[in-house]
Amino acid sequence: MTDTFRFDDRVAIVTGAGRGIGRAHALLLGARGAGVIVNDLGTATVDGTGAPTQAPAAEVAAEIEQAGGTAAANFDDVSTESGANNLVAQALDSWGQLDILVNNAGINSSPPFAEGSSEAFDRMMRQHAYGHFLVTRAAWPHMTAAGYGRVVHTTSGAALYGLPQSSHYCMAKGAIIGLTKALALEGAAAGIRVNAVAPAAYTRMVTGMRDEALRQQMEELMPPHFVAPVVAWLAHEACPVTGEIFDVGAGRTARVFFAESPGYCSRSLSIEEVQANFDAICDESGYFVFKTGMESAEKMAEMATAAMR
């Protein structure tokens, strides 16, 4: 099969690309012709507290080049404004453009909610939410000026559906969902498409999980390379969607969407009415899927108007 979808003459940044899922993204984009900035701070521990090393990013960049591609390593900390700006500047200095941004860098720690420190929470928010925000903000003016851009964020099924003893992580990843939805609307007129993936893959992030049976299952069924084709498609110029989230792993890809039930509307609403009609409020049949917050508000106004007749 020929490489139908290529990225020749495109420049991509992949954050957290020294290992695991990010490495798979960078290798695939590089193999399909993109110039790739391989960013990785290279911390020795998954919670982001270990000493950094340049080896992971440098090795992936070298691997891309040895396979005939074009790449450069970057070691900046994307959770800082200076690091984010330096990363984007490197892409522009190296190739004069930036077309694709894959925000993948992240850390993981799973203390019980009552035991998590404020410092650990701040570190989690900075690496995930701030990291996505700061690098995208640095790239945004250049994509806007070019009239083109593809941004792929990395959220998590933990944020979508919850995960015990992961409140810090779930909250940080949840912020990325809101950022994705907002930027998709803001970027549409400028030709910038913004989507997100919620990947499941066996990486060093999950090697220490408490459930040994699940760990073994993930190791067997969920190698990181199963996520990369979806990210590459979302990063391609031919991809038509924006503001979407996809659950990806083990060879499965599924669209995630938020829906509202038709609900119950009364202009004399009371606690007693809420209780009496709670089944209708929670009924999942005939649900609505809105593209914007305004669409939801418009439906609410429509139902309120009908209730007054």
Give a verbal description of the structure:
The chain is α/β, with parallel strands linked by helices. The protein has two domains: 11-256, NAD(P)-binding Rossmann-like Domain (Rossmann fold, 3-Layer(aba) Sandwich), CATH 3.40.50; 271-307, no CATH class. The chain has helices at 20-31, 55-66, 81-95, 118-146, 157-161, 167-187, 212-221, 228-234, 271-276, 278-282, 293-307, and strands at residues 11-14, 35-39, 70-74, 100-102, 149-154, 192-199, 245-249, 252-256. An eight-stranded mixed β-sheet has the order 3-2-1-4-5-6-7-8, with helices on both faces. Strand 2, helix 2 (55-66) and strand 3 form a beta-alpha-beta unit. Helix 1 (20-31) runs parallel beside helix 2 and helix 1 (20-31) packs across helix 8 (228-234). It is globular, with a radius of gyration of 21 Å. It starts with 10 loop residues before the first strand and ends with a helix.
